[in-house]
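Example is below:
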Amino acid sequence: MRSLREINTKFMADEKKLDFYGTLGPDGWPHITVLNSLLQLDETTLVWGQFCQGLSKRNHQLNHKIGFLLLSPDKRILTGRADWLESRTAGAEFDMYNSIPRYRYNSYFGYSPVHYLKLARIGESQALDTAAYARARAMSEKLKSSVYEGASPDAVSVYTRSYFADPAAFLVLAYMDGDGYPHLLPLGQAVLTGASRVVFTPEPERETLTRLGERTKVAIYAITLQKMFSVLVKGELVWKRVGPDKLGVVEIEQVYNPMMPKPGYIYPRPCLRREVEFEDALYEYNV
């Protein structure tokens, strides 16, 4: 019989899997990015190669605790948590990452640096109950009108709405657990209502979700699995009583574009600064 480590190592070695990587930002919000390079080197060490710069790489240097959720092509998930240790720009793993093709961006930039993590906990891979999430999503759609009134009209764009509406999309929620690690779980039952709220029934993760208190800060990552378009939204979770049950409601406060070529916040709209030189004076104004 294979050991848990052997099973997980094989799971991680699948280059077509998606690695959802959770960190905590200095602003107190959880953050999620997607990798495709997370590997287990030994019993206690994880490694991944970086090919673009985003907030998660800054976050894990400020707060070393990270959480992860891996999704395989056959819809199995593997979750765990770890502590960031260091990054390197040379060595065996650096050479390994830069000698294998992974998606098209690797051919442009290569991987640098390579990050090393100390594994704190890892579970067993589980099959995703897609039928249960489909039923829960249908219930969320049915109940979402009960929390529509009063929603802000401009938090998300038509593109973000299309990602959430895509039946092939995969959604992940992150929150901070009691030990200070980001905890990630699937949120396939979530839907948008209007352009500023994400709503979802507790099923099929009722035991975990209903433990979250009012005003818990959460991040929700949506990615379309066919075209790989993605978006990250953040807001505080509140629970609304709807008949005999309750509905999770996240009022969107921030929207982050995680895609190349320029990851960054797109809502609230960033304030751009322009400098104008005029007669030996330098003026700055917002645009």
User: Anything to note?
Assistant: Helices lie at 4-13, 55-62, 92-97, 105-109, 130-143, 158-165, 206-209.
